[in-house]
Amino acid sequence: MAEADRLKSVLRGTTLHDASRRENSAEHSWHVALHALVLAEHAARPVDAGRVVTMLLLHDLVEIDAGDNPIHGVSDPAKQEAEEKAAADRIFALLPPDQSRHLRALWDEFEAAETDDAIFAKSIDRVQPVLSNLATGGGSWPEYRVTRDQLETRVGAKVSRGAPAIWDGIKARIDAWFAGRGA
Amino acid sequence: MAEADRLKSVLRGTTLHDASRRENSAEHSWHVALHALVLAEHAARPVDAGRVVTMLLLHDLVEIDAGDNPIHGVSDPAKQEAEEKAAADRIFALLPPDQSRHLRALWDEFEAAETDDAIFAKSIDRVQPVLSNLATGGGSWPEYRVTRDQLETRVGAKVSRGAPAIWDGIKARIDAWFAGRGA
């Protein structure tokens, strides 16, 4: 638990809704867990909200070692994956063996994004920063020169897979934002 | 979910473990939820960890309106309770009626601290700041002039009620801290 405290100092690309500062990965994890609780009924297929919440509470712990890689930034996916796996090896091993195995298995399930619970959890993890960006007039999108197509490919496709109704609800707001920029 | 974002700007009395800054109530909520997941096996009586985690994700939302009242600070309990109830009325009403009723009921259950799940959730909410204070050489205890007796009454009694084994584990570290100050 002391080690987990360090996630509060890992900063993300997005800001708070009032744009006062960048968000950290610990408060992001809380916020996505809350989203999952409230939005679980909109999952593409029935999910176990408790398992989804647990996955989301854990999903970014690896960033204590591997850092946050903004989705619209430039990164090397193979290098990032290797760093995150090494981080998971170290961090989950801090727990007693039975808990380490159980929680590591949930993290692996989240990363693999193959089960209904993991697919929905991944959707929610993508939804929350979009809402932050919309709340702050585009947020980090201009900084990362994000195009409408890129949002559809990197975010929309993943949100739609687990929560199509949520992406439908957000799309109109995204279109309005891009229309407002003449893009 | 946008309203919930504001909890990231409510600052608590305790700091991060590296003492770099004060902790906010959103990241605190994430951290206590994680504590509950890992420590549920040490509850005084069997608990539903999923319900406990949900309570802890929600428990501080009222601070968006009512602010944080440090446990060792001076506050008026009746005034605080009234402010928090008014905050719960406003904030939970932002949700659709069925979710509003369900999540408000969980918050009321947490506040009442009568069920096994709520009693354990309250214990965990008290444990996390003690561990922060121990990690930072006493943290906010000197600032609030906390005595060993006060810690036992305001914190120990509540932690022991829901998780006696956890309090037993922490007590030796607290005693060592006070011994080191000649108190």
UniProtKB/TrEMBL annotation, chains A, B:
Keywords for this protein: Hydrolase, Metal-binding
Enumerate the InterPro entries for this protein.
HD_domain, YfbR/HDDC2
**Any one cellular-component term (Gene Ontology):** cytoplasm
Gene3D superfamilies per the UniProt record, alphabetical: Hypothetical protein af1432
Ranges for the HD domain? 4-167
* Molecular function, one GO term: metal ion binding
Q: What single Pfam family name could you report for this chain, choosing any that match?
A: HD_3
- Protein name stated in the entry: Putative hydrolase of HD superfamily
Species for this entry: Pseudoroseicyclus aestuarii
